[in-house]
Amino acid sequence: MPRVTRCNGLHAQQPQARIGTEAACSLWRDGRARYGPAMYRITKGIHAHFAHHVRGHRGACISLHGHTWKLEVTVAAETLDDESFVVDFSVMKREVLQPAHLLLDHSLAIGEATWAETKDSLATLGNILVDSRQHTMGSRGELQPHLQGELAGARNELPGDIKIAVFPFAPTSETLARWLYELAEERLADDRVSIVNARIYEALHPVETWAEYAPR
Questions:
Q1: Per-residue pLDDT at 17
Q2: pTM of the model
Q3: pLDDT of residue 167
Q4: Phi, psi of 185 (to 5 degrees)
Q5: Which residues of 184-196 are buried (b: 16+ CB within 10 A; e: fewer)?
Q6: Could you give the CA distance from residue 11 to residue 74 in angstroms, rounded to a whole number?
Q7: How far apart are the first and last CA of the chain?
Q8: Is 138 exposed, middle or buried (CB count within 10 Å of its CB: 0-12, 13-18, 19+)?
Q9: Cα dist from 57 to 68, 199, 211, whole Å
Q10: Of 99, 95, 112, which Cα lies nearest the Cα of 164?
Q11: Strands 3-7 and 154-157
Q12: d(C-alpha 21, C-alpha 71), whole Å
């Protein structure tokens, strides 16, 4: 069993090999300085189906293409709240993940510059696509669920009643990860809770490839 040594009034574990009290405390202090205090961490994610266009891409992603995406946020705290949570998972969903899902699900995600260049053409296309409901429903039907207002600088537009998610940047996995991080920081972070990272996966199941944004 590791021995416990007191270092400046706090306990540190000393390995079985007897390296000496001062050396053990030095290693312990170095570890705290490098990694920080012990933290609780929780992670929650949500899936969304949407397409995007990578402006200026040198390869196939110049075309409209879609994924089943996973959006994931990790938060941390040294202490728990009065319910023994870092953050209630339902709060993470309500404040961050569900609004992001409403913005993105079954949309085309593009940047502001692309939107400015294509909004008239998208309205024409949208009207053609949505008018196809006349043959099955006898009407254009209802609008898709969409976001009212802005979400961390992003918004929905509905040209011809199709759903577009417009961002102030070209939406790639990397830029979406930073956007999701900043959204989580805006809505969840406080004196106790910090945002560890946000991850974006371009697949339904966890894979070896993802984009992550985290502070230094």
A1: 41
A2: 0.81
A3: 99
A4: -65, -40
A5: bbebbeeeebbbb
A6: 28
A7: 35
A8: exposed
A9: 20, 22, 17
A10: 112
A11: unpaired
A12: 46
Superfamily of domain 40-213: 6-pyruvoyl tetrahydropterin synthase/QueD (3.30.479.10)
Euclidean distance between CA atoms 64 and 164, whole angstroms: 12
The CATH 3.30.479.10 portion of the chain extends over 40-213
State residue 47 phi and psi, 5-degree precision.
-100, 150
Tell me how far apart the alpha carbons of residues 71 and 85 are, in angstroms, rounded to a whole number: 21
Reduced to 3 states (helix: H, G, I; strand: E, B; else coil), residue 211 is strand
pLDDT of residue 9: 38
The C-alpha angle with vertex 111 and arms to 107 and 115, in degrees rounded to 5, equals 80
Cβ-count burial of 170 within 10 angstroms (0-12 exposed, 13-18 middle, 19+ buried)?
A: buried
Give the type of residue at 123.
A
Residue with tokens 């941390």: 76
Q: In whole angstroms, how far apart are CA 23 and each of 18, 35, 210?
A: 9, 18, 40
CA dihedral 133, 134, 137, 140 (to 10 degrees): 70
Q: In this structure, what token pair is assigned to residue 34? A: 């490098």
pLDDT at position 203 = 87
Residue 121's closest CA among 136, 134, 108?
A: 108
Which stretches in the chain have pLDDT values below 70? 1-36, 206
